[in-house]
Amino acid sequence: MDITGLIIFLAIGAAAGWLAGRIMKGGGFGLLGNIILGIVGAVIGGYLFNLLGISAGGLIGALVTSTVGAVVLLFIAGLFKK
């Protein structure tokens, strides 16, 4: 992965983490927290989309996949927090 790809990957992770925080009423977790949440969300979202037979390509697809995964991650974390 070149430097441009890495920057795009981190930007998508940050945006997905921030969006998930807004969707789940958390408001975001700071830049590093959002990036980590988005990256983990990308893995979870990719797995879930694969199970459901959904294919999302391009930057928008990566953002949607990562955001869905991050929302699922926040939902599961919320179950254990209570």
What does this 3D model show about the protein?
- The chain has 82 residues and is mainly α.
- It has one domain.
- The protein is built from three helices and no strands.
- α1 crosses α2 and α2 packs across α3.
- The longest helix has 24 residues.
- It is globular, with a radius of gyration of 12 Å.
- The termini are far apart.
- The mean pLDDT is 88.
Give the structure's gist in a few sentences.
This protein is mainly alpha-helical.
Helix content: over 70%
Tell me the quaternary state: single chain
Q: By helix and strand content, what is the structural category?
A: mainly alpha
Tell me the number of strands. Answer: 0
What number of structural domains do the residues give? 1
- Report the biggest beta sheet as strand number plus sense, adding barrel if it closes: none
Q: N-to-C terminal Cα separation, in Å?
A: 40 Å
- Counting DSSP H or I runs of 4 or more residues, the number of helices is 3
Low-pLDDT residue spans: none
The average pLDDT value, as a whole number, equals 88
From the alpha carbons, calculate the radius of gyration and give it in angstroms: 12 Å
Shape: globular
| N to C succession of SSEs | HHH
Portion in strands:
under 5%
